[in-house]
Amino acid sequence: MTKSHVATMDYALPKDETTRNSVVRRASIAGGVGSFVEWYDYGIYGLLVSSLVLVFSAKEMSATDAGLMLTYVGFTVSFVARPFGGVICGYLGDKLGRQKLLAMLLLMISLATAAIGLVPGYASIGWVAPALLIFLRVVQGFSAGGEVSGAGSFVAEYAEDHRRAVVMSPLVMGSFIALLFGSLLISGLINVFGVVAMNHWLWRVPFLLAIPMALIGVYIRTRIQDTPHFQMVKANKRVVRNPIREVLSSGRHLKAIGLAITLPAVNGPGYYILFVYMPTYLNKVMHFQQLQSLMVTASGLVTIICAIPLMAWLSDRLGRKPMLIASAIAMGVLAWPCFWLLTLGTMPLACMASILLACAFAGHAGVIQTTLAEMFPTNVRYSAYSIGFNLSTVIFGGSAPLLMTWLIGLTGIASIPSYMVIFTAVLTLISTFYLQETAGKPLNDE
Predict the structure, then answer these.
(1) Residue 415: helix, strand or coil by DSSP?
(2) Which residue, 23, 317, 326, 275, is CA-closest to 173?
(3) In 319-399, which residue ranges form alpha helices assigned H by DSSP?
(4) Is 106 strand, coil or helix?
(5) Is the separation of the CB atoms in 223 and 100 below 8 Å?
(6) Inter-CA distances, 243 with 75, 133, 227, 238, 331, Å
(7) DSSP H helical segments within 157-265, as ranges?
(8) Cα-based distances in Å from 222 to 101, 103, 173, 445
C-alpha cells in the first residue's frame, strides 16, 4: 500500500479487521440498495413503454410506429439530461462529498417517478400529458446522470484494493435486480388483472411504488458516513476549488475521460437494448405477447445477476483487462446469432438467446464501473467519472431504442440491434488495449 492509502484507511475506518469489514459491507449494501431504487425508478419506463404509448399518444397515433417513437422521445431526452446532471452532481460531489448528494438524488428521481404515475393521459389533457412525461423524464435523467458515478465513487472509496470489484458488485447487481423486479411485478399484474387493465390504469402502480422504495433507500444511504478517501482529502485541505475546470484543463484527465467514453461503449447497447428495450422489441417487432416479452427479458436478468459476482471475483484475481476483452469478443461474436434466434419467434429459443447474451455481457458489466472509478483520483473522481461515463451512455445507449425503432421501421430488418452491439463491442475491445491495469492497486487521492 502507498502511504496515502494507509493514511486514508486509518483516517475513517476502524483498525479492527472484523469491524472494518462490517463497515465496508454496509457501504456495499447501501450502494446496492440505492442502485436498486434508482434504477427501478429509471428502468420501469422502458418496461412499460407498450402501455405508455397508448396513454400518452393521440388515439390515431397510438397503434402506429409514430406513437412508439413519441414515447421513446421521452426515453431519449432523459439521456440528454444525464451529462448535465453528471457535471453538476460531479462538481458538488467533489466539493461537498458523496453521501448527502446521493441521498438527495435518490429522493429526486423517486418523486419524479411517482409523478409520472399521477399524470393524466392524452385523452384527458391533450398535448400537456406527453409534455409532462418528457419533463419528468428530464428530471429522472438529471438524477441518473449523477447516480452511477457518485455511487461508484462512494463504494470504490470504501472497498479494499484486493477485492474492489467484489465489493462493488452489489452496486452493479442492483440495477439488474431492479429491472428483474420490475419485469416480474409487471408480469404478475398482467397475469392477474390482464393486459386491458394494465393499459387502462394498472400501469400507474409500478410508478407509485417509487415512494416507499425511496424512503427505504434514503434511510439506508443517510446511515453511512462519507468515504474515507474523501474525508482525508477534505481534512488535508486538498479539495479542488473547481473540479470541472481541473478536469478539463488537465491533459492527463482529458485522456482518461476520452477512454472513459469509448471503453464502456458496449455497456449502452448491452444494458439498454438487451434489457430495457428488449420487451418492447419482442412485443412490437417480433409480435410476442407482452407477458412473454417480459419473461424472456427476465431469463437474461436472472442469468446476469448470478454471473456478475463471479466475473467481479475473477477480475480481482486476473485483472480488469482480461475480463473486458473476453466480454467484448463474446458480445461481438454472439450478437447476430442471438438476434437471429429471436426472429424465429419461439419462447425457448428467445430465452436461450437472452441467456447467452447475458452471460457474454456479465464480464463487462461486472468490471466496468470498478475500472472507471480506478481511473481517476479522489479529488476529481466524481466529476471526471461522470463526464466520461455519461457522454458514453448518451452516445451509445440513450439513443438506442429510438434509433432501433426508426431503423427497423425503415428497413424491415429485425436483426438491426445486433449490428449496434457488434460495433460497440469492437470499440470497447480496441479501447481496452489502451487501458492500464488497475486491479489490486490503491486508489489515487490527487
Answers:
(1) coil
(2) 275
(3) 320-343, 347-374, 381-393
(4) helix
(5) no
(6) 30, 33, 18, 11, 35
(7) 164-193, 195-197, 204-208, 210-222, 228-235, 243-248, 251-262
(8) 10, 7, 21, 24
Tens digits of residue pLDDT in 273-317: 788 777 777 877 788 887 888 888 889 999 999 999 999 999 999
Contact assessment for residue 391 and residue 83, using Cβ atoms and an 8 Å cutoff = yes
366, 165 Cβ separation under 8 angstroms: yes
Measured at the CA of 333, the angle between CA 337 and CA 76, to 5 degrees, comes to 80
DSSP, residue by residue, 43-104: HHHHHTHHHHHHHHS-TTTTTSHHHHHHHHHHHHHHHHHHHHHHHHHHHHHHHH-SHHHHHH
Is the pLDDT at 168 greater than 90? The verdict is yes
Residue linked to cell 492497486: 441
DSSP string, 375-398: TS-GGGHHHHHHHHHHHHHIIIII
For residues 333 and 366, the answer to whether their CB atoms sit within 8 Å is: no
Which single residue is written with the C-alpha cell 465489493?
A: 167
- Spatial distance between the Cα atoms of 23 and 181, rounded to a whole number of angstroms: 27
Percent of the chain with pLDDT over 90: 50
Cα-based torsion angle of the residue sequence 141, 371, 297, 347 in order, rounded to the nearest 10 degrees: 150
Residues in contact with 355: Cβ distance below 8 Å, sequence separation at least 6, in sequence order: 299, 300, 303
Q: What is the pLDDT of residue 41?
A: 83
Task: Output the nine-digit C-alpha cell for 101.
Answer: 448528494
- Write out pLDDT tens, residues 210-265: 999 889 888 888 888 889 999 988 888 888 889 999 999 999 999 999 999 999 99
Give me the helix-helix angle, 347-374 and 128-156, nearest 10°.
60
Structural domains of the chain, with CATH: 19-432 (1.20.1250.20)
Amino acid present at 157: E
Tell me which residue has cell 426472429: 343
Report whether pLDDT(361) > 80: yes
- Please indicate whether residue 257 or residue 444 has the higher confidence score (pLDDT): 257
Distance CA 405, CA 394 (A): 17
As given in the structure block, the three cell numbers for residue 110 are: 423517486
- pLDDT at position 17, please? 66
Decide which of 228 and 16 is more confident.
228
Residue 38, all three cell numbers: 434508482
Q: How far is CA 380 from each of CA 35, 38, 238, 339, rounded to the nearest angstrom?
A: 22, 23, 11, 40
